[in-house]
Amino acid sequence: MSSEQNPTPETADAPRPRPKRLTYAAALCALEGLALLAGGIWMLVLGVTGDTGDRQQAVTGGITVLVLALLPLLAARGLLLRRGWSRGPAVITQIMALPVAYSLLQADSVAIPAGVVLAVVAVTALVLLVSPATTRALGIRGPGRAQEPAERRRTAGQRQP
């Protein structure tokens, strides 16, 4: 028997390539995180230079936005590394972005295009994050699939009373 017909443990456990949907979702999360980072820095600079009405509020807002930028950035890193925990923060980020996009769409200014872009990015990222390929790649099992395959094989021969 050749080695191609009988997989060795190294090839049987070799990681599969990352699905493109997972990579795209990570890229969108990173893009949102970078946008928040830029916005936080901008608010902080305005607050420090005194170009706003309330300096303390601008600095506090800038620091808050900078800290909030960590959520999508960490989620994006986790998605790229295929960490199951990362989908939760990524989904939360998208859900939080939807009301922001809606409020931008209600404005009568140049914020409307930003609202459209944010809404499209958030909905696209949500669709990518809940796709079956992403779920499998992150090792997330749905309800009723809590047992590992080895445990299923062991208990398959046992009858339930």
Provide the succession of SSEs.
Answer: HHHHHHH
Helix content: 55-70%
Count of separate DSSP helical elements: 7
Strand segment tally: 0
* Distance linking N and C termini: 43 Å
Task: Give a structural overview.
70% of the residues lie in helices and 0% in strands. It contains seven helices and no strands. It is an all-alpha fold. The model is unreliable at 7-12 (pLDDT under 50). Helix 2 (20-49) packs antiparallel against helix 3, helix 3 (55-80) crosses helix 4 (87-105) and helix 4 (87-105) runs antiparallel to helix 5. It has helices at 9-12, 20-49, 55-80, 87-105, 111-129, 132-137, 149-156.
Short key terms for the protein model shown above:
161 residues; 7 helices; mainly alpha
Summary, kept brief:
70% of the residues lie in helices and 0% in strands. It is mostly helical and 161 residues long.
Write the layout of secondary structure elements.
Blueprint: H1 9-12, H2 20-49, H3 55-80, H4 87-105, H5 111-129, H6 132-137, H7 149-156
Helix pairs in contact: 2-3, 2-5, 3-4, 4-5
